[in-house]
Every structure is written in C-alpha cells, then in structure tokens.
Amino acid sequence: MQYLALYRKYRPDNFDDVVGQDKVVKVIKHAIETNRISHAYLFSGPRGTGKTTTAKIIARMVNCTNLVDGRPCGECECCKNIFTNNDVVEIDAASNNGVDEIRELRDKVNLVPTLAKYKVYIIDEVHMLTVQAFNALLKTLEEPPAHVIFILATTEPHKIPLTISSRCQKFQFSKVSDEQIVSRLKKIVDNENVQITDDALYEIARLSDGGMRDAINFLDQLISFKDTNITIDDVYQVNGSVSYDEIFNFIFDINNGNRAEIINVVEEVDRSGKSIIKFIDEVIIFLKDTLIYLNNGRLSEINSKNDKLKEIASSMEQKKIYTLIMTLNDIINKIKISSYPSIVVIVNLLEFIDKYNISDNIENDEVSDKDDVYIDDKNNAGKALNIKKEENDIKEDINEDKILISNHLLDDNLKQVRINNTFVDASKQILIDIKNKWNLINNYLLSSKYSVISGLLNDTMPVAAGSKNLILLGKYDSVVERVNEVTDDVSNLLREILNSDYTVVCLTNIEWEEEKKKYIDNLKASKKYSYINEKASEKTEVKERTPVDDLIDLVGSDIIDFKNYER
Q1: Per-chain mean pLDDT for the chain
Q2: What's the CA gap between 226 and 196, in Å, rounded?
Q3: How is domain 244-359 classified at the architecture level of CATH?
Q4: Which residues pair with 470 in a beta bridge?
Q5: CB neighbour list of residue 108: distance below 8 Å, 6 or more residues apart
Q6: What is the DSSP string of 354-398?
Q7: Does the global pTM surpass 0.85?
Q8: Could you give the C-alpha distances from 237 to 240, 353, 542, in angstroms and in order?
C-alpha cells in the first residue's frame, strides 16, 4: 500500500479536530447549523493553519444529509463520495490564474450538482489570479446561482482587489500556538507508536512558526530519519540548525569578547553549508526569549533552553541585549545584499565588541561617532587637555575666579585633569564594586562629621572609576557645584566606605555626556590617556593689587623705595 504523508493522514474531517482557529470554527459552524450559509468566503492567514482544511469541512457539512452534533455523519452518500465527483472543485490559482480558466469556471457554475445540495468551489492562493481573471470572476462571485458556494483562500489578502474581498465573508486564520501544536503532535506519535521527547516536540513547534502542516511534515521527516527515541539533537541534525548549547556559547563569546571563538563559529556554520541567516535568526530568538524572561519571568517551554536563558540573563545587561539584537538584525539585512555573508557577520560582530569594550569601562551609553577630542600630552599638560575654552579664556578665569587649589576647590582646568586621570585606567569592574557599596553612604547621614557630605552624595552616582580617581554625576547643578567645593571631605568619606583613596570630580548630566563622547572617540581613534599631575595645573591665589603696585608699574621698582610701616 502506498505510504500516506502524516499531514494528509491526520487532516481533520470535522471542526472538532481543527486546532487553533476556535473563533473561525465557532462562527462558521453556527452559520451552517442555522442555515445562514454565505455564497462566498475569503480565508486568509499564514500557511499551514487550516484554510483549505476548513473549506473542505464546510463542503462536507453543507452537503451532509444527516449531521450528528455538528459533524458530518460519514455514512451518507454525500459524505462518502463528496470529493470523488465534480460537486467540490479545487482550483490552484497559482497555475490556473488566467482569464480563460476563470471564464471556463463561470460557464460551469450554472450546472447543478450531480449528487450534493451545493457545488463548492475552493480556490487556493487566489491572490495569484490576474487582473483580467479577477474581473471575469467578479460578476459571478457577486450573484452566483443558489447552489454554488465560493471559498477563496490566500496567504496575501492585501493583493486581492477590494471589489472581490468586499463581496465575501472574511475570516482571518491565526498562527497555531506551540502548546496546541505539541498537543496535536503527541496524539499523532501515540497513534504511530513513536517515542519522542517533549523537548523535541517543542522545538518542532517552534521551528514550524505556527504552521500545523509544517510541524506534522517535519515530524514525518524525523520518523523517517529515526523512528524510535527521537531527541532534540535529532531535530537539530535533520533541520540543519544549531543546538542551544552552541547558540549559548556563541552569545557568551560575544558578551565576553572572545574574538577567535566568534570567527571559528561563523566560519564553521558557513563551511557546513548551514544558512547563516537562519543561524543569526536563532541567536536573535534566543536573545528575545532572554528579554522575556528578564521582564516577566516566563521561561521557554523547551526545558533544555531554560538554564541557558537564566545564565545569559544574569551575565548580560538588558541594554546590551537590545543593542546586540539590533546589530544582528542589521547584519541579516546586510547579508542579503552581500556576496560574502560570513565576512559581514564577523566584521560587524567584532565592531560591536569594540564599541562595548570601550564603553564597558564607563557608565554605558550609546556611542557617538562625532565629537571633539581631548588628549593629554606629556610635554605640555595644558595643551594636552584641549579644553573647550581658548587660552585667553583660561587666563581670564584665573584672574576672575581667584580659587585656592590648596583647598581643592575645582576650576575648569583641574576638573579636566581629574576627568583625564579617571579615564587613564577606567575599569568597569571597579565601577561596579563602587556602585555596590554606594548605599553605605546612608549609614553616615546621622554622623556629626559626614552628615552633610553623605546627604550631598545621595544626590550623585558614580559613572566612571579608575584606580584612584572617580567621576560622579550630580542630579542637580547646585549639588554638582557644592560637591566640587568639598572634594577633600568627599574623599575622606569615600576612604571610610571604600577603604581606598579616591580623588573626586562631580559633573552635570550635560558635562558627563560631552566627556563620555570624547572618551569613546579617543579610544576608537586609538589615542591613549596619560596621567597628569594635578600640581602642574594648580592655580594660585591671585593677590589683590594696591596703589603701590600701580605706582611701581608706572615709574619702575628701582625708583620707588616702599616700606610698610605698621601703625
């Protein structure tokens, strides 16, 4: 006996067996039971979701002479011979899309059914009809004979003229959920006496992307490959996809900047003949599931995947996951127009790692491609910083501010020095350690010595840290100004909390954004930072001028002999 494919063998012959289309089934079933049958239906939705199957069930039900609980009886002559006579006509519009075929259909419409009550025309992929064919169908579809029912099925409803769709009752078929697909597959494997793990069934459901027919077809292929003890590894092998262990390791390598491993994996996928786009799709889906777990705690139904999801979720920041997903999506778009897909993947992922390795050492934010550059120069400390203000402006600041560096009240020049020194050896791990201890500041709110300082620091947060230098971000401009006035006291408090000496500078949000962009641009340009001694940039207190100073400038010090007599 000729082998019958599983999707044909287990095709539903009544509405109770249709999976995942409850709303559609409910409306049509009730319409048939109450004899409110439309002359034309339009079924649209993804492939393999039951459009043609539902059309055939309708053909059975409207012609069955003895419905039993809303099901075809299967015993009457119509039920037994409905698809062997000419009363149900299936037309493939993809290959019969011309006006001549539709004219032939129009001529035969008036012929009465030979056996059944209704003549049912099922037109698959109806969107493939030509404009002329649609025009030829239009009048017949609008006013067909009483004994004719048209059922149009399509995966692309937007391509159907409004003049056609407006004359039909429209039903949208949705993708079948993974749980419903797995439930259906379990019934099939039980009937076929096949042993298969739940992990493998859920992976089949996921790969089928909501298509029941695709899922059953793939199960059929797996049974042909190995008819007993089918596991998820067999699914990977037959489908040509990679395992979750491989996907996890790949994401782990990206997160940790393991360049050699990333290159090896991409080259192996390319060399093995697997689709690189399919591989990147799998990585994106894995990351998507990680985000779902992070935000609502829901894990994948595939048990072998859950531990991996948890591990990635605990080791990767959400913002990095967002950026990686968008990077991978851009890679897919680039691959489609490239002759060297593996090179596109490798270059873009290495670029992603470069950007994140740079920005991981400071409070992470988007990388800017354009900004001014400031770099220190060992031979000229003032020139090295390339401060925004011109040299004349700096001189004016010195004259006007009259700030004593001995008290470490920060001017613009010293702020730039401290920012530079923080970036010399900025470290993400140091920053994380400091952040973890930052709440200890609250323990000093009632301290007679540090209550004011701890109160100020509660309105700041560390955003970059080196071995001896720390940049704080202040919530308010007034807080920034005040912290920069008492940096010695701040350092003393941090010494007690962190058990280490830190020189501090506090910035506003605007200042921090500017400095961060400069830092990232410099590292992208491979420009390194060098430590600058603060004393080289210290300002001294400006002594107020006296009338005697003006007189000395006028006539010279060799003429004036000034003595200070105390009275």
Answers
A1: 80
A2: 10
A3: Up-down Bundle (1.20)
A4: 465, 504
A5: none
A6: HHHHHHTTBS--PPPS--------TT-HHHHH--SS-HHHHHHHH
A7: no
A8: 5, 30, 79
469 sits in which H/E element:
strand 469-474
**Predicted local distance difference test score (pLDDT) of residue 377:** 41
Q: How many CB atoms lie within 10 A of CB 481?
A: 13
> How open is the CA angle 232-236-240, to the nearest 5 degrees?
165
CA dist 254 and 360 (Å) reads 13
Closest CA to 368 of 510, 508, 524: 524
Distance CA 323, CA 43 (A): 39
Residue identified by tokens 């992070």 is 294
Indicate if the alpha-carbon torsion angle 349, 352, 354, 357 is positive or negative.
Answer: negative
Q: What fold, for 381-537? A: GMP Synthetase; Chain A, domain 3 (3.30.300)
**Overall fold of domain 178-239:** Helicase, Ruva Protein; domain 3 (1.10.8)
pLDDT in tens, 458-475: 889 899 998 899 999 988
Per CATH, the number for 6-172 is: 3.40.50.300
DSSP state, 147? T
Give the three-state DSSP class for 126.
helix
**Strands 460-465, 469-474: pairing kind:** antiparallel
> In what side-by-side order are the strands of the sheet with 40-44?
88-92, 119-124, 148-154, 40-44, 169-172
Confidence at residue 437, expressed as pLDDT on a 0 to 100 scale: 85
Reading the block at residue 183, the tokens are 């439930």
How far is the C-alpha of 521 from the C-alpha of 101, rounded, in Å? 66
Q: Domain spans of the chain?
A: 6-172, 178-239, 244-359, 381-537
CB 236 within 8 A of CB 243: yes
Residues with Cβ within 8 Å of residue 506, at least 6 apart in sequence: 460, 471, 472, 473, 474, 479, 480, 483, 484, 487
Name the range with the highest mean pLDDT among 102-106, 162-166, 405-409.
Answer: 162-166
Decide if 6-172 and 244-359 have a common fold.
Answer: no
pLDDT tens per residue across span 201-251: 988 988 888 899 999 999 999 998 887 788 888 888 888 778 888 888 899
Q: Write down the pLDDT at residue 308.
A: 77
Q: Where are the beta strands (DSSP E) in 232-289?
A: none
Nearest partner of 196 among 218, 227, 221, judged by Cα: 227
Report the C-alpha gap between 414 and 422 in whole angstroms: 12
